[in-house]
Amino acid sequence: MLKLSGVLTIRTINGRNGPFNVGRLVTDLGEFSVKDTLLDQYEEGKYEGDFGISRIYPSYYLAGGRLVVEVRATLETMALAGIDELTAEDVAPAVEPDPIEETPPATMPQPAPSGDEPTEGDDEDPDVRLFGELWPLGAKVKLDPTVDRARFRRQKERLKSLGYQFRPLGQFWEKPAEEEAA
Fold first, then answer.
1. Which range marks the domain in which residue 141 is found?
2. pTM of the complete model
3. What backbone torsions phi and psi does residue 156 show, to the nearest 5 degrees?
4. Please, is 87 exposed, middle or buried when counting C-beta atoms within 10 Å of its C-beta (0-12, 13-18, 19+)?
5. pLDDT single digits (tens) 79-125
6. In terms of domains, do 71 and 138 share one?
7. Which has the closest alpha carbon to 94: 72, 75, 68?
8. Cα–Cα distance between 96 and 106 in angstroms, integer?
9. Are 121 and 162 in contact (CB under 8 A)?
10. Are residues 130 and 62 in the same domain?
């Protein structure tokens, strides 16, 4: 794993599957596109810190009648030191494909979620199915970015609806103290 200091600029793009985040990591070694699942829980902004990169590879996509070639990095770890707002230059319109459409299917066959095919007597809480081993949720929750991207996004949205707030420097979701007592 390669460890580099740099700035990760995260942008939110509204695609046909809903909003998704993409990143641009600028380091002394170079500039990399980042499309990892874990970015979907962050707000737009510039995140300064140290980044552990497990893979650097070329990638391409078609957008607006043009072929875009980029160098991508896969983040293994992030130790964030600071957060800044995006500048006007950072918010220029971007046309990028939703990474959920790029994700290859899992190599192991996955059972159909029980929520899609209810069986007689199936009264399992939908949150139990959604969060799996993370259930029951505690005051702090760290999502697993290795689950499929669609499920990760549903988990993030459900945490927001339950009153949890994302803490980017610690990379976890936290329920405010007054919410816990209720």
1. 126-181
2. 0.74
3. -60, -45
4. exposed
5. 998 888 877 766 666 667 777 776 554 443 444 444 444 444 456 78
6. no
7. 68
8. 23
9. no
10. no
